Amino acid sequence: MLSKNIETALNKQLRIEAESSQIYLAMASWSETHGLEGISKFMYAQSDEERIHMLKIIKYINERGGHAKVTDLQEPKTNYITFKEMFEEVYKHEVFVSEAINDLVHVSLTEKDYATHNFLQWYVAEQIEEEAQAKVILDKINLIGDDKGGLYLFDRDIQQLTLKNSESSK
Length: 170
Ligand code: OFO
Prior knowledge:
Layout: H1 4-32, H2 37-63, H3 83-110, H4 114-144, H5 148-168
Helix pairs in contact: 1-2, 1-3, 2-5, 3-4, 4-5
Hydroxy diiron-OXO moiety binds next to α1, α2, α3 and α4.
């Protein structure tokens, strides 16, 4: 059985995961309307992944005798000046989510809830990967600068990254 504290903290995290999914969905749509096909596919896949992260938490809370609450969400930003600005926000957002997961791990330890601590290890590992991926992408964007040919290749390459991600999550 989950303590009230843990249940509240997990519910807070489930909302963050749902908002992450919406943020990436809005980014997918913006990219799609700006001719960035590969980037948009990547963002749609990221949005789906975040929804899975949210669902995992819902299931966990309910299985442990709590009640997962589906709430309203903060409206995501729908417009960007450049795709670089967009990816800077991806990186910032993933760092924010990692901090939220760390806080949650801390709560699980102070409450001596080792089952939740164990459950959260998957998220800890996932955040390391997602932060690293966002950083690699940003570094590539900084290399490209204003080169249009570079952007074309980047849009194609990120599509391959999407394919790889969906292969490895099978
Ligand atoms: Fe939910 O994985 Fe990143 O944010």
